[in-house]
Amino acid sequence: MVLESGKGSTMADEKRQLLLDNHKEKHFTSGEVVRDVILGVSDGLTVPFALAAGLSGARASSALVLTAGLAEVAAGAISMGLGGYLAAKSESDHYMREMKREQDEIINVPDTEAAEIAEILSEYGLGPSEYGPVVEALRKNPQAWLEFMMKFELGLEKPDPRRALWSAMTIAIAYVIGGMVPLFPYMFVKEAHEAMFTSVGVTLLALLFFGFVKGHLTGNRPFLSAVQTAFIGALASAAAYAIAKLVQTGI
Predict the structure, then answer these.
(1) What predicted TM-score, i.e. pTM, was given to this entire model?
(2) 175: closest CA among 89, 239, 84, 87?
(3) Which one, of 39, 50, 11, lies nearest residue 182 by Cα?
(4) Of 43, 88, 153, 159, which has the maximum CB count within 10 A?
(5) What is the pLDDT of residues 13-72, one digit of tens each?
């Protein structure tokens, strides 16, 4: 009888594993990297674009626009990368503080924490007879208990320890790539006013393409995302150009 029971359990495990192996879920799991790329490229395309348009409106030379643009790209990449690093580091520090607090509570008030597990599971429709064994099993495994509370009570996922550095590098590189797009025309056209029109065309195409890819990756409507991204970039550069012309007229 015991042999048959063990055999049945093994067959059930094999069947479950077979189902898992044959079922490949198409979930997008690189959200943090995509978020960093979107942040870097969108700012990189928009800010230097607006700066170059504004300087062109003030009738600066292409050399001056290019110099100022490259300086802005360098400063912006450092600033954005540092911001990404600090944000990711703060997230990691917050997780560690909460984990230490939760660990202390499991040691000092285990019955209260066990009651919290029961409350969490009851919210998913489980009754006492169903969540009771789960609670007891977690109490016997402190590490699993801690991870359960972090995820289901506090809603916190353990961050990758390399996340801060990778975030900084991703945002900075994406900013540089995006920032160089509107500046390329100024490398080849001496008159900044003429280079600006080429820059506008190239950057709007880049914004449309970037917006389309962003929409596709994030599950939004790609064409709407492309139009929105291009519109925001165009609006920023038009505002910078108009302000530069107003200042020039006033002077």
Answers:
(1) 0.72
(2) 84
(3) 50
(4) 88
(5) 566 666 555 655 554 445 677 788 888 887 888 888 878 877 777 777 888 888 988 999
- Looking at 23-109, list the stretches that DSSP marks H as alpha helix, in order from N- to C-terminal side: 31-57, 62-108
Q: Please count the residues of the chain.
A: 251
pLDDT digits (tens, 9 = 90+) for 169-228: 999 999 999 889 889 888 888 888 788 888 888 888 888 888 888 777 766 788 888 888
In angstroms, the CA 35 to CA 24 distance is 24
DSSP string, 230-248: HHHHHHHHHHHHHHHHHHH
**Single-letter amino acid, residue 218:** T
- Asked if 171 and 82 count as a contact pair (C-beta separation under 8 A), the reply is no
CB 42 within 8 A of CB 171: no
Q: What is the CA radius of gyration of the chain?
A: 27
Q: In the chain, what are the helix, strand and coil shares in percent, each to the nearest 5?
A: 85, 0, 15
CA distances from 51 to 28, 44, 66, 80 (A): 35, 11, 10, 17
Instruction: Identify the pLDDT of residue 28.
Output: 46
Do 150 and 99 meet the contact criterion of CB atoms below 8 Å apart? yes
